[in-house]
Amino acid sequence: MIDHSLVKRFRQDVGDRLAHQRRIDQANGLPAMTGEDERQFARALISQVLEEHARGEIGMGRTPPTIEEEEGLAAGIHAALFGVGRLQPLLDDTEVENIDINGHDKVFVSYADGRESMHEPVADSNEELVELIQILAAYSGLSSRPFDTANPQLDLRLPDGSRLSAVMDVTVRPAVSIRRSRLGKVFLSDLVGNGTLTPDVARFLQAAVNTRQNIMIAGSTNAGKTTLLRALANEIPSGERLITVERALELGLDQFPELHPNVVAFEQRLPNSEGQGEITMAELVRRSLRMNPSRVIVGEVLGDEIVTMLNAMTQGNDGSLSTIHANSSMEVFNRIATYALQANERLPIDATHMLIAGAIDFVVFIEKHNDYDQGGRLRRFVSSVREVNGCDGRVLSSEIFAPGPDGAAVPHAPVQADLGNW
């Protein structure tokens, strides 16, 4: 067990020495340390602080920490400085799928094989938990995000790609949910291998991406929409310029330059404490069209940006991708119409249906079941693919892949779009 009170004390000490060195470098006109240089220097400072602590313990006639205890303290201090504090061991565990925190001492962990367990506290108090989230909000993403009484909601992407959502003051205790991104660099072949896609659906989706069809991925929370979106994006030729638009950076396509060397990642900016400086998703989608994109990828549609995105799809930006929450492939059209009603344009239903029919080519529905595959993991699979055929007062569509005997999508109707020889 790590003595977290020591970690907290040593983190402050190392942080102070690191800040002191930054001030010295600045006063001497030296360039600022890079992130990696700073981490290496911090490791040296951590070793120095732990050595001083061991000498002090010996001088007081007490037993100094063992090698194993020192290693644990060093890892904890480094995680507190550059990682996510006491959450780090959970994020280092590749089998952890979701982390739910209801106050500092109620931590529930779910694993990929379906196990759920309680974990030790991630902070010594609710105030310390809020402080941890505030530190993460200050350094994650493209701009600092407030998390306080005036801004009690927070969404951000952690350094490992996991998605964090936190609330305070609207709950009795601060609450945090972390959804792991266990598959970052993922391909359609990987999803065939784990049963998410059948080979037929994978070949179809590969052809749809290559022929620049506009695809909307739908499903419930935690069904695997973002993972499927990454896999589809990784089928896009490396020579294309991609613009991604997200509420909180999550896709991370720019992290793999060997696959996508030309990527610009946009992130929504929240207003500051004076209510100024907000840049909405809709504004970012409009801006993306002026950035010479080959394709625009909107990480998740949750509001009035839907009208801007659909307009983008009909203005020559073929091959766009996005995700949306829905309970079926058919329900997607009603969900889009609902979002469109909330937009500034206030589009009526018939106009929205015409816009959908002209913009979206295919809807792919992915779902999660509470049973397990042969590897002991929760089953996630594409169960339906719907082709948009036109508009006649409502969106006309046909289900080209429908649920088979085990729920996974099987061929159901011929495809009208020209996808080549897939």
TrEMBL record:
The record's annotation in Pfam families points to: T2SSE
CDD domains according to UniProt: VirB11-like_ATPase (cd01130)
**An example molecular function term from Gene Ontology annotations:** ATP hydrolysis activity
Q: What residues does the Bacterial type II secretion system protein E domain cover?
A: 89-355
What InterPro entries does the database record attribute to this sequence?
P-loop_NTPase, T2SS/T4SS_dom, T4SS_GSP_E_ATPase
Q: Belongs to which family?
A: Belongs to the GSP E family.
Q: What's the name of the protein?
A: Flp pilus assembly CpaF family ATPase
Source organism of this protein record: Nonomuraea endophytica
